[in-house]
Design goal:
Length: about 280
C-alpha cells in the first residue's frame, strides 16, 4: 500500500471543460485517475461512443498520467416493468464494452428510486437478479460493476442484501459516504461495516444543512461530515481503494469553480490521511 489512497477526479465537477483540459488539470492538480461521466447527453462521454473514440479517450488520459479508473454510468434496475430493466441491461453491456476499450476497471451504476408503492424485498431481488448476469460478463473482462449508495439505496443493510443475493465477484459498491451519511438512515459507522467487504471505491465530498433543509456542498473538511473519523477508520482497516471527488458542479452551478475546488481535494485527503 502506498502512503495514501488514490484520489480520482470525477468529471461531474467540470461540465464545461473539454476532455483535453480535464486530462491536463487532473495531472497538474495531483490526481491519480479519472471517473468519467458517461451519459446519453454526451457530457463528457456517451454510452454509444465508438470503439475508436473510446480508444482515443483512453489514450488521452493514460498519456496524461491519469487513466480512466471508472465509467460513471447511469443505469438503473429498480423497475416493475421488465422492458425497462432490459433497456438498462443493454446500456450496461455498452458500458462494459467501453470499459474494456478504455481499460477502466470499474463501472458505476444506480439501483434507482423505488417505484411508487413498491415493496423493498421484491425490488432487492429484481435489482440483484438484473445485475448478476451483467456482473459476470464484466468480470470476464476484469471489470467490476459498482452499485452506488444513492436514492432509496443509502442503507448499508439494503445494499448488503443486493450483494448477498447477486453473489458475484463482479458486483461491488461505490460508497458515496455523504449520500449515505446525510440520508439519516443510519450512522456512517453502522453502515460502513456492512458495506466494507464490497467497497470498490468511494465518492468523497462534504456539506451541511441550510436553514431551509437543503444540503449545501462545501470544500472537503468545511462541512459536517466527520472526515477525520471516517478516514481514520478506513486507514486502520487498510483501505486501498480510491476516493473520487464528486463535486456536483453540473447540478449546482453556484458551487465554486473547478479551478478552486479541484486542487484542494487531493491535498486535503492526503494531509488528513497522514495525520490520522
Amino acid at each position: 500500500m502506498t502512503g495514501h489512497p488514490p484520489v480520482v477526479l470525477n468529471t461531474l465537477g467540470c461540465p464545461d471543460w473539454p476532455l483535453e483540459t480535464i486530462a491536463h488539470h487532473a495531472h497538474v492538480f495531483g490526481y491519480d485517475g479519472i471517473e468519467l461521466r458517461t451519459h446519453p447527453d454526451g457530457n463528457h462521454f456517451s454510452p454509444g461512443a465508438s470503439v475508436e473514440e473510446a480508444e482515443r479517450v483512453g489514450t488521452l488520459f493514460r498519456n496524461a498520467g491519469v487513466p480512466v479508473t471508472s465509467i460513471m454510468g447511469y443505469t438503473r434496475f429498480a423497475f416493475t416493468n421488465p422492458g425497462e430493466i432490459a433497456e438498462n441491461q443493454a446500456v450496461m453491456r455498452q458500458l462494459i464494452a467501453l470499459a474494456r476499450t478504455l481499460q477502466a476497471p470499474f463501472i458505476r451504476s444506480f439501483a434507482g428510486q423505488l417505484p411508487p408503492g413498491a415493496d423493498r424485498s421484491p425490488m432487492i431481488r429484481t435489482v440483484a437478479d438484473a445485475l448478476r448476469p451483467l456482473a459476470e460478463e464484466a468480470l470476464a473482462d476484469g471489470i467490476r460493476i459498482g452499485l452506488e449508495t444513492h436514492d432509496d439505496w443509502c442503507s448499508g443493510e439494503l445494499i448488503r442484501a443486493v450483494m448477498d443475493r447477486a453473489n458475484s465477484r463482479g458486483l461491488g459498491v461505490v460508497y458515496d459516504i455523504l449520500n449515505a451519511w446525510e440520508s439519516g438512515i443510519e450512522p456512517w459507522d453502522v453502515a460502513y461495516p456492512k458495506l466494507k467487504p464490497f467497497i470498490l471505491y468511494c465518492h468523497l465530498k462534504d456539506g451541511y444543512r441550510l436553514a431551509d433543509g437543503k444540503l449545501r456542498y462545501v470544500l472537503l473538511g468545511a462541512g459536517d461530515l466527520p472526515l477525520r473519523a471516517i478516514l481514520a477508520r478506513f486507514k486502520a482497516d487498510g483501505y486501498e481503494g480510491a476516493f473520487s471527488f464528486e463535486w456536483e458542479k453540473k447540478w449546482h452551478p453556484e458551487l465554486e469553480s473547478p479551478e478552486r475546488a479541484m486542487p484542494h481535494f487531493p491535498h486535503k485527503v492526503r494531509s488528513v490521511w497522514s495525520e490520522v
